[in-house]
Design brief:
The complex is a heterodimer of chains A (110) and B (114). Chain A has 110 residues and is mainly β. Chain A is 0% helix and 43% strand. In chain A, a hairpin with a 6-residue loop joins β5 and β6. In chain B, the strands form 2 sheets. In chain B, strands 2, 4, 5, 6, 9, 10 and 11 form a 7-stranded mixed sheet that branches. A 4-stranded antiparallel sheet of chain B has the order 1-3-8-7, with no helix packed on it. The chains are: A mainly beta (110), B mainly beta (114). Chains A and B meet through β6, β9 and β10 of A and β5 of B.
């Protein structure tokens, strides 16, 4: 089964501290993974995709096939990073769909 | 910018009522999706449509149906609303050309069933 697991429902850190949002996946083959973010009262939007190997708003995520993980990291959290974060992967076989994890709510305290 | 518009931001309905949630996108996208968003459960796919008049069940289609008569519009229908369908409903779309995994979401429709 193709599945995304985000083990933490809630994560709270202080401003300036490093943050890591965990994501593990179950997938046979080469997965395509993404992080989506939803700020308060805003629509859900793409944050970054693993194939781009990009840094967006200071966030990076590295695909680790050995550990089947795609953790989202930022060295110095900011208050404006407080949001709901979802990890997702594209399913294989048939119609391509995005499967989402259950999400992690990040709170960055002043 | 891609615009996905959900016609109703907030709805309150009674048990047994028929409910229509409308979604319109302006980027000529082939694929459209309806997700349900619940705290602790994340986003769950209800239905998606890969073209006009084409639809496919997602993970939780029970109690829902959809309609896609025009490319830009995708409707979610609750034939007989129940209290366990109280939720936030998100519509999304994507184009097929060079799909990069990016779905464009609407602002959501928060439905309360009394």
């Amino acid at each position: 089964a193709q599945r995304v697991t985000q083990p933490e429902k809630l994560l709270s850190v202080f401003k300036g501290a490093p943050v890591e949002l965990k994501c593990n996946y179950s997938y046979s083959g080469s997965p395509e993974l993404f992080w989506y973010v939803q700020y308060s009262r805003q629509r859900l939007q793409l944050l970054l995709r693993h194939i781009s190997r990009e840094s967006i708003k200071g966030f990076t995520a590295d695909l680790n096939k050995g550990e089947t993980s795609f953790h989202l990291k930022k060295p110095f959290a900011q208050e404006e990073d407080s949001a709901m974060y979802y990890c997702a992967l594209i399913t294989q076989g048939g119609s391509e769909k995005l499967v989402f994890g259950k999400g992690t709510k990040l709170t960055v305290n002043p | 910018d891609v615009k996905v518009t959900q016609s109703s931001r907030y709805l309150v309905k009674r048990t047994g009522e028929k409910v229509f949630l409308e979604c319109v996108q302006d980027m000529d996208h082939e694929n459209m999706f309806w997700y349900r968003q619940d705290p602790g459960l994340g986003l769950r796919l209800i239905y998606f449509s890969y073209d006009v008049k084409m639809k496919e069940k997602g993970d939780i289609p029970e109690g829902y149906s959809v309609s896609r008569e025009k490319k830009e519009r995708f409707s979610l229908i609750l034939e007989s609303a129940s209290t366990n369908q109280t939720s936030m409903y998100l519509c999304a779309s994507r184009g097929l050309a060079g799909f990069t995994g990016e779905l464009f979401f609407g602002e959501g429709s928060r439905l309360t069933v009394l």
